[in-house]
Amino acid sequence: MATPRDVETTKPDGQAPAEPEPTTQGPPSGQRPGRQGSIKLGLVGWLRWGWRTLTSMRTALILLFLFALASIPGSIYPQRGVDPGQVARYFQDNPTAAKWLDRFWLFDVFGSPWFAAIYLLLFISLAGCVLPRAMLHIKEIRRKPPAAPSKLLRLPYGEAFEGELTVEEAARRLRRKRFRVVTGPDWVAAEKGYLRETGNLLFHLALLALLFAVGAGALYGYRGNVLVVEGDGFANAVAAYDRFMPGQRVSAESLEPYSFTLKDFQASYVAAGAKQGQPIDYSAKISVQDSPTSAPRDFELKVNEPLDVNGTLTYLIGHGYAPTFKVTDGKGQVAYEGPVPCLAENQATYTSECVIKAPDAEPMQLGFLGRFLPTTVPSGEAWVSVFPGAVNPTVQIFPFGGDLGMKSGVPQSVYQLDTDGLKPLGKMSAEPKPLAVGDTLELADGAGKIQFTGVKEWISLQITYDPGRLPALLAASAAVLGLVLSLTVRRRRVWVRMRDGKVTVGGLTRTEGSGAAFSTEFAEIVTMLREE
Amino acid sequence: MPTNEGLATLSDQLILVTVLLYLVAMIGFALELAFGRARTATAVAAKRELVGAGARTGGGGGVDGGPADTASADAASTDEAEDRAEPAPAAWAVRAGVVAVVLTWIAWAGHLAGILARGLAADRWPWGNMYEFVVALCFAAVTTFLVVLVRRPIRFLGAFVTVTVALGLGFAVLFLHVQAGPVMPALHSYWIAIHVSAAIAASGLFTLAGVCGVLYLIRRDGRPSVLPVRADLERIAHSAIVIAFPIWTFAVIAGALWADRAWGRYWGWDPKEVWSFITWIVYAAYLHARATAGWRGKAAIIVSLIAFVCLLFNLVGVNIFLPGLHSYADVPQ
């Protein structure tokens, strides 16, 4: 029915009269080399056998199932392309299992060789089936409908009536119904519904096109992430990214030269009721320069509303707090001043973990762990945040002094404090008294002081350039169009024979399962032909 | 944008009433099935005659007995012969079936009102979390059944559709219910109307096909049974999937377009994406299998049921077990 491969083993309708059906499989299927043993089977024979097996319907079905099955691990194990942080955590929690899973590319399922093998085989099988079939269909479209068989009433749909109908008149009426018509001395043959096969082929070819579009997008496009604090800016260059994932054919010079500054970020939340604290809206006000020479323009970046600069898109994908601190060292010099992006450990309250490093502090380096509470309320001996908005922001500070370990040359995460060379300053409490904005904490042993100077917010952005987007959309749309055509249009034939004042009409549909609908259409055709 | 508590409560109550009505309707359908089985067979036979009549009015004798009957009719004939031998149906049983249809329509109206009230209460499209999605999916399944019922005699499916929907709604009310309210910022998009509606419509049709598929496996050919004949079940399942498959394809593509707006890529192998892709592949496999000799009938139906399980897993399993970007399910802990 709907598919290109069915003709291989199927006789459509099971009752089509001696009408030869098109075969897509090139060589005649008389010989079955596999069964006769491989004595006489040369290289060409094996290749032919392999090709026929690959392009057979059964192989395609098996490959389809494998394709689906192979995708499952990609939804179970964390994927590097989706969330590398999760993968790293998996390695930490189960090092042995992770090592083995990694050997089988289970953290990169959709980029793995075995996944590629399945879809490449599937698409080769598809191409090997669809392309010959397309050739055949082109021939078929140009061919005329076959001549009327001798006994029309033997057809699945047949009817006879008395009447004077000329061949020309019958042909004219059938043409008006948009049938393709051929006439003989006393008969008319008509056929329509070629769009079914056209749609079928369009669908499968569109899937091939979709694969190429996705591949081209991955080769010539790039993706990157960056975190920007209010007041800071970003210029689109490889060095400015926190994480940059280019396609193989992307050069650093080809990046769209735009830049912007984050002026303000606003998050609003449900203030009361059962859904208190649920986010309602995020909005980032940025000032954009489309190129280094153009004038800045204002833009409001929101979820679902990315910034588009000549096909390079900037998306708002995350946000958090960046409290600002001023660290003064034991010698009275300012060792650090500015915002510190903190990572939310709880989305409902936005309680966030902060790490402040002052490597320039003297006489010893200073490091701080901080717990940022956007809406602080006391809870027994402790303090907690009860709301994600910054209604009453405070920070609990855990100071350390010593060696931050930044000289060792090992790259360090800005979100982690390596406490190996550090010792706590003063008595470490699990619940130090939180600092409000403007408050200062004097460090023990005269090591200095830290002041909580204010609250800013940061946003995380994804920047994407994918030239395959539009071709992929066109291919997908063509696939849907083809699918609808191939599933709704029926291929059907009607013959009329006029002999001795008696008109016989016969019809058959070559589409399985559409009998009920065709019987109605056939009855209409008969009525139309009977009209005087 | 405060939530209208009155409307929200009204919606919850309407859904509860709807569940009860579906259950009562289910009993009506079941009574007709159990005690009016000849009626079922007659309906099938009458339809076949209708099919034949279209082609054969006006004489043209000697047509009968030709190779004209469809393969499905051949398969069905043995069952019909057995069913015809049964005594005439009890009139009250037929009436139970009619009452059940009327009740289903009333329940459908209550169901629709419940969805509308929920949408008005929260001032947004009423399918922003898993509870609302399941309620809407059940609505789509009933709508499909009722629309087809207007044109085709498929009342024999009523009991199975209503019981499935009542179970689905009960599951939603007991385990998934959350207060009506606003949704995450990522859902503030007109794409929710396009992508989620298409997914709901397709899922409703797939559910109908799934019900037919399960009945097909329970029903044995050649044995008397109150269940509808296999050929009918197979045909309804196939028609539903043929309509649903392009809609599902469209839903996936619309999802990709939305992902391109919201997340910066149209396809990123998020668990939800993976499982809608798997569902799509397996339904495609069903369509191919049904056209392949040796796979028709039971094998193809099993493939369609595997696909339906993938669809259900995508709906329930992915939301609960697999974290990802589609974490709007808002499932109560």
Could you explain the architecture of this structure?
The complex is a heterodimer of chains A (532) and B (333). Chain A has helices at residues 43-54, 57-76, 84-93, 95-103, 113-142, 167-176, 195-220, 469-488, 515-530, and strands at 157-162, 180-183, 187-192, 222-229, 233-235, 243-246, 259-269, 279-289, 297-301, 307-309, 312-329, 334-339, 343-344, 352-358, 365-373, 376-379, 382-385, 394-402, 422-424, 435-436, 440-442, 448-465, 492-499, 502-509. Chain A is an alpha+beta fold and 532 residues long. Chain A is 29% helix and 30% strand. Chain A contains 9 helices and 24 strands. The longest helix of chain A has 30 residues, at 113-142. In chain A, strands 4, 6, 10, 11, 12, 21 and 22 form a 7-stranded antiparallel beta sheet that branches. In chain A, strands 13, 14, 15, 18, 19 and 20 form a 6-stranded antiparallel beta sheet that branches. Chain A has a 5-stranded antiparallel beta sheet with strand order 1-24-23-3-2, with helices on one face. In chain A, a hairpin with a 2-residue loop joins strand 23 (492-499) and strand 24 (502-509). The relative contact order of chain A is 0.14. Chain B is mainly alpha-helical. Chain B is 73% helix and 0% strand. The longest helix of chain B is centred in the C-terminal third of the chain and has 33 residues, at 230-262. The interface between A and B is large, with 81 and 75 residues.
Helix amount of chain A = 25-40%
What is the general shape of chain A? elongated
Strand content of chain A: 25-35%
User: Mind summarizing the main beta sheet of chain B?
Assistant: none
Seen as an oligomer or otherwise, the chain set is heterodimer
Helix amount of chain B: over 70%
Query: Mean of the pLDDT scores of chain A?
Result: 86
- Shape of chain B from CA axes? flat
Rg result of chain A: 36 Å
Secondary structure: number of strands of chain A: 24
Largest sheet of chain A: 7 strands, antiparallel
Overall SS class of chain A: alpha+beta
> Cα distance, first to last residue of chain A?
37 Å
SSE topology string of chain B:
HHHHHHHHHH
Percent of residues in β-strands of chain B = under 5%
How much is the average pLDDT of chain B?
Answer: 80
How many strand segments of chain B? 0
Over the alpha carbons, how many angstroms does the gyration radius of chain B reach?
Answer: 22 Å
Q: Structural class, judged by helices and strands of chain B? A: mainly alpha
